[in-house]
Amino acid sequence: xxxxxxxxxRSKLNxxxxxxxxxxxxxxxxxxxxQFDTKTLNAKSLLSAxxxxxxxxxxxxxxHGDDSNQALHVLTxxxxxx
Length: 82
What we know:
By secondary structure, the chain is of the alpha+beta class.
């Protein structure tokens, strides 16, 4: 299943939140991408996700896989509810 959600980061992402995001993303089998500005990142790669440091504003999550509903729920709560 393919799912996409748009959100808005109210505060800038720091290293701790990025590590938390990558750790949670790796708990799922789904393929997870994060888009902001003109960049597309692999949410399961710490090296890739480090590009999120200091980012705030609009962001989009794309999730593809069997556990995409659960992954999207966990990741949106990690990114947007803090």
